[in-house]
Amino acid sequence: MQKAVLPSALKPRSCGDLKRFGRAHDGGYLASSADVRHSDVLVGLGINEDWSFERDFVAEVPCPVLGYDASISPEYFVKKVANALLRPRKLMRAITMLIGYWSAP
Description:
With 105 residues, the protein is of the alpha+beta class. Helix content is 41%, strand content 15%. The protein has four helices and four strands, in the order E-E-H-E-H-E-H-H. The strands form two sheets. The protein has a two-stranded antiparallel ribbon with strand order 1-2. It has a two-stranded parallel ribbon with strand order 3-4. The protein is extended, with a radius of gyration of 18 Å. It starts with 17 loop residues before the first strand and ends with a helix. 7% of the residues are buried. The mean pLDDT is 81.
């Protein structure tokens, strides 16, 4: 088996001020609090339907968020709401997603 070696510029360094932004799994990431505080704008790529990282980031530093995901469209959310009508337990989550989509700048 061949071993991969990272260039030294890409090797992790110690960082004492890591903070989790977003959910504990796929929607969340660890980031340096100092780096976040010095941010002017947040660009989110591939958000899908989980914007917990962006929500927590902006709670720390109020800044513009530019969120992009080629797989999401108004039709996607309308379909989610229509499917949720068939499953009432999921209706509130779908409505929340729909409101979040249309209220985003």
